[in-house]
Amino acid sequence: MHMYKHALLLVQGESDGLLLLQHAERLAREMGTKITVGHINADYRELDYTSDSLTKDRQSREVIETKAMLSRLVENSSINISVKSIVTIRRFRDVEALVRHEEVDLVMLGHKNRFFGVFSSFSFEFINHLSVDVLIKHISTP
How many whole angstroms separate alpha carbon 101 and alpha carbon 86? Predict the structure, then answer.
C-alpha cells in the first residue's frame, strides 16, 4: 500500500466534508498523513471589469461563510488539520500549484450520483488535471 504524506481534502460543504474527514482521519492515524481541508470559491473579482461593490460584497460574504464552514468541520476532529480557502476561477491550475507548494501527494474529493453527474462532475475533472493521486469518495444521497 502506498504511504501518503500529505492529503488535501477538497470539500463542497459539511456533509461531504464529514465523510471525507472520517476517511482522512484513518489515514492520519494509520500512516501519519498530514491532512489539509480546502474549499474552492469562485473568484468573481477576476470577472469584474468595473469596480462593482456588489460583486466584492458577495465575494467577501462567500469567503467568510466558507471559513466558518471549514472551522465547524474541523473543530471536533481528533487529529491536527490545516485549512485552506482557495479563491480562484482557474481551479485546476491553482490547486495544482497548491499541491506542489504544500507537497500534497493525495487529493480527496466527494462525488454524488445525480442526473448528468458523469458530464458535469468537477471531481472527475481533477483526475485529468492533477499530477498526484486523486481519490473520489462516493457520497450517497438520502
Answer: 14
User: Helix, strand or coil for residue 9?
Assistant: strand
Return the C-alpha torsion angle 96, 132, 103, 7, nearest 10.
100
Measured distance CA(94)–CA(100) in Å, rounded:
10
What ranges make up the beta strands (E) of the chain? 6-10, 34-41, 81-87, 106-112, 133-139
> pLDDT tens digits, the chain, 142 residues: what are they?
578 999 999 988 888 888 889 889 988 999 989 999 998 887 766 666 566 677 777 778 888 898 999 899 888 888 889 888 888 878 888 899 999 999 999 999 887 665 544 544 566 778 888 889 988 887 776 6
User: How does DSSP classify residue 137?
Assistant: E
